[in-house]
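Quick one, T. Sequence first:
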Amino acid sequence: MKTVGYYNGKINTIEELSLPVNDRAVYFGDGVYDVAVAENYRPFALEDHINRFFCSLKQLEIPFEMEKGHLHGLIQELLNKLDAPGNAMIYWQASRGTAPRSHLFPGTDVKANLLIMISPFNTPKELKTIHLITTPETRYSYCNVKTINLIPNIMAAQKAASQGCDEAVFHKDGIVSECAHSNIHILKNGILHTAPTDGKILPGITRMHMLALAQKLSIPVIESAFTVSDLMAADEVLISSTTGLIRRADHVDGIPVGGKDPQTLSLLFNEYIEQFLRETQNTLNP
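Structure tokens:
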């Protein structure tokens, strides 16, 4: 299959798959999601993504009955249906179920809906340089939940694109949180600085792996809020995400930044790529 779609047991191409208009994801965005990438039919860090998915479900009290192991196996089964070479983006979401529109949760007889979409995707393996803009924080207090309510993120991402940039950096009272669809970090004097997972940012899976690798490489890490001024004065500005892995920024709001510690940046990036390749090198599907 060129693309693979799944909805509550039904399998078709993404283009042919349909879901009911009374799915609470449609009219409330009442659901959570996660995204992973795969190469050679092998998902990268899938267990970590599934763990985060279940944390999001718990925080929004969505009654999802499938066990983690079953979801893991289902994703692999669907991934194996994709045409060769098995390089893909895997998206899945659970909504609170299908029920007439009401702000209150539906009854306990209403089960969560599961949607999975798998499409070809080639994960970048070169250190890409991008441009950023800053934008005031306009989101709410569920930033740590990977909810499908992403309007502020969408508006910020479009604002960046309209100015010829690749990402938007949220900040409030001068304090940087994260980007529209990435985590952001800075290198300063050989130290990696990143915002804490205190509910104001999404606990990124790439972020988590990057911090572990920094520890392995004896790169000091400080998980503490930093300012826009710190961002502008950083030796390097790093952006991390599942689909982009680790990227560097060389402009923020049109002003040059970073470029002062390429050795540490390259060391961290190369170690991450090696880990990615080790985990995805074996082909599962002939």
